[in-house]
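Late entry, evening session. Most of the bench is empty. Finally got around to the prediction I had been postponing all week. Sequence below, unchanged from the version circulated by S.P.
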Amino acid sequence: MRPLENTTVISLEQAVAAPFAARQLGDLGARVIKIERPGVGDFARRYDGTVNGLSSHFVWCNRSKESLTLNLKAEAGKEILEKLLAQADVFIQNLAPGATERLGFDSERLLADYPELIVCNISGYGSSGPYRDKKAYDALIQAETGLFSITGTEDTPSKAGISVADIAGGMYAYSGILAALLARSQNGEGAVLEVSLFEALAEWMGYAYYFTMGGKAPERNGSSHAAIAPYGLFPTGDGQTVMLGIQNEREWARFCEDVLSKPEMIRDERFASNSSRVANRQAMRQEIEAIFTQLTAEEIMAKLEAAQIANAQARSMESFLDHPQLKALQKWTEVDSPNGPIPALLPAVSHVGMVPNMGAIPTVGEHTKAILQELDYSNEEIREFELRGVV
């Protein structure tokens, strides 16, 4: 049995953060009903068409869900949602700030009417404060939390290459819902959870403590580390790139002797401590690159492994998708979609003895009729809803 079987999640969701949280609940066996706009659905469906004509981010975040289209500006649409919530365990929403309140689905009223319901509101900046109503896309949150200031090169601030704010928000929503379900199993009470992308990414900004206590923000150093050297990407003689990181003086000595074959660098005052290596980063880098560019990536990594120096190959997306560790862990599977089977990675957490739910990607409104029939609406009523634009 999957942990969340017999758990029903209603998710009034769009984009990435809420769908990502809800998908993971679905991976654990929850029934996830995704509410979408009639006709067009979640706008993330149209981000691109690279996965057999489907949006890559939509495919990533929306397997194992049932799609129900609802016009929540119509009274009949609101009535349908009320019936769903009366039977649900979890309600997730990430509409624009204040939208659910204007529709009549504010958290306080929901908890009063459905005392065991867990309500999770995901927003950009939270439900109060001067930024409450500000638009909040992933990159905007990265900018506001200072991530740009520590990411990129010295000359070019950069955002993270993945939707890190959305992912952070989705993960805190997911873990918060699991905690609320556990609490409810003990006290029988529902809960209201507030998750903002801003607060989620703020929590991930560990360098805030570096600045608070050190009085200086870390410099942007590309793949390098603000406080450790050598640490980062280094080119090799065969056109590849190797990542390495030295963590202490014992490793630095082994690196100089066994990898570079230059033991005299251990005694060089420019490199005698981590602080001095950070201060003389460029001179140290020149010394390392002079050796590395005479060797292949395979030769360098073999030397680093023998010296027990942390290292990695800087892979392309193509190389990552063919990663030997992914194959060894058997992380690849397939899920169904409207356009045929597509490859998918299994969840990051492996539950021994449990097979995760890897259900299909739904089409817009694919399950609308079946869900309405479950709620005891007749075929005639459903046809009338369709004619009136309710579903």
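Two things to note before I forget:
The chain has 19 helices and eleven strands.
The two ends are 33 Å apart (CA to CA).
Will write this up properly tomorrow.
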